[in-house]
Amino acid sequence: MRISLLLAAVFLSGGAQAQVTETVSINPGYADQLWYSLQNGTVNSRPALEWDLAFELPGFTASILVNTIKPGFSVHRAPYSVSDWNVLDTAGLATWPTLQNSDTSWSVGGFNTSTTGGEFDLGWGDYNFVTHAVVGDSLYVVKLATGAWRKLRIDGLVAGTYMLTHSALDGTDEQSVSVQKSLFPGRHFAYLDLSTGTTLNREPAGADWDLVFTKYITFVPQPYGVAGVLHNRNAQALRVSGMPHSLASYDLSPMATAINTIGYDWKTFNMSTSAWELDEEMTFFVKDVPGNIWKVYFTGFGGATNGEFTFVKELVSATSVADAMSHPTAVQVFPNPVSNGRATLVADLNEPVQHIRVVDASGREVRRFGPRAAVGLVQLELDLAGLPSGMYMIRLETAHASAHTRVLVD
Fold first, then answer.
1. In a 3-state reduction of DSSP, which class is residue 267?
2. Which is it for the CA torsion 156, 157, 159, 161, positive or negative?
3. Start-end ranges of CATH 2.60.40.1930 in the chain?
4. pLDDT tens, per residue, the chain with 410 residues
5. Beta bridge partners of 309
6. What is the full DSSP assignment across 316-367?
7. Which residue of 17, 58, 159, 298 has the lowest C-beta tally within 10 Å?
8. How far from 213 is each of 34, 247, 278, 281, 382, CA to CA, in Å?
9. Which of 170, 91, 97 lies closest to 140, judged by CA?
10. pTM here?
11. CATH fold group of domain 331-409
């Protein structure tokens, strides 16, 4: 059946799925990180402060993350090269850059800030395209959560093994640590506790989760700690703002790869009432790791008191974005916004329209248009005169499919 009404492909495969309300908790004070699968629920939860550094396992970017939310822990780039290891002086430490991870990409950790901007400069070292090894070229000073100061260098990444060295500032207590990628199959990162030298296998396999609920650092523009949601490197998300959740629909718009697309700003803290308030006009569509598309919006947030996130999820398409994008956009309305009460709906279909419904922000049907016999690429005139200004959903239904789009009436 040739029909372009695939804004929500699930309608072609047996009907929409029920909404499910979920509550997950990262515990008081945002003490934990929680990995979540939209299909299967919570996958794993671990203490957020149990690690210091994390080493990227897949790909070639060799990202090294810093646990920037760990109280008392910080890493500073020293203005020295690795050849200065024995003569490093901490004079001027207060002016040295403090490392911060990107909040948009897992592949840009705090250690990956480039110093030369060269094509093969990964920040902490340079990639050799002949040997496929990364050789460290930078020095760092670390303040551990215990209050102790250490100097540190990433020696290299060779044959799948990260190697690093750290010692007291005076060179005593030198320790070498290695992190072998093969010991963490399927994971995105391996984690390290510098104080004990222990490597941690703390996150689920990358194929098993879509979202991580966590506290992280964003930039406003200064670094600032927030509690929110980041997504898997193999997931994508789309933010829809300015309309109630009931009207928000996935219309095959390009999804974003930035891991903070969901982020934290779907909520604000009201200083007058000392309560968290949620944006009732912010909805997210998430392409999970398997390729399904979910509608997600938040209905509750407990803050640091209990670390609870309450949200609604709904499977809106069991078809991947790549599959859906092979079809043309389902329906369009022009002009949009409508200012004179007249609008034209354009659709490409091969069976007659049974009816077209216009629904307001509360979900109430405010206008209905009867059957239309035309098929193919058709233009259907709609009379919207008399409707109050606002956002409306227009839903077109045939015998075997349906599609919807949004229109703003001025």
1. strand
2. positive
3. 331-409
4. 233 333 333 333 334 457 999 999 999 999 999 999 999 999 999 999 999 999 999 988 899 999 999 999 999 999 999 999 999 999 999 999 999 999 999 999 999 986 666 668 899 999 887 788 999 999 999 999 999 999 999 999 999 999 999 999 999 999 999 999 999 999 999 999 999 999 999 999 999 999 999 999 999 999 999 999 999 999 999 999 999 998 888 876 789 999 999 999 999 999 999 999 999 999 999 999 999 999 999 999 999 999 999 999 999 876 443 343 333 335 788 888 998 999 998 887 778 888 898 988 777 889 999 888 888 778 889 999 999 998 888 888 887 777 778 889 98
5. 24, 301
6. EESS-HHHHTTS---EEEESSSBSSSEEEEEEEESS-B-EEEEE-TTS-EEE
7. 159
8. 5, 26, 17, 21, 44
9. 97
10. 0.77
11. Immunoglobulin-like (2.60.40)
- Contact between residue 312 and residue 20 where contact means Cβ atoms under 8 Å apart: yes
- Cβ pair 354, 347 in contact under 8 A: no
Q: What angle do CA 148, 75, 227 make, to 5 degrees?
A: 105
Q: Which residues pair with 162 in a beta bridge?
A: 157, 179
> Please, which residues bridge with residue 250 across strands?
none
Closest CA to 285 of 259, 310, 253: 253
Q: Cα separation of 342 and 355, whole Å?
A: 18
CB-based burial, 51-78: b 16+ in 10 Å, e otherwise: bbbbbbbbeebbbbbbbbbeeebbbbbb
Q: Residue 125 to residues 9, 98, 133: CA-CA distances in angstroms? A: 46, 17, 10
Q: Do 379 and 345 touch, CB atoms closer than 8 A?
A: yes
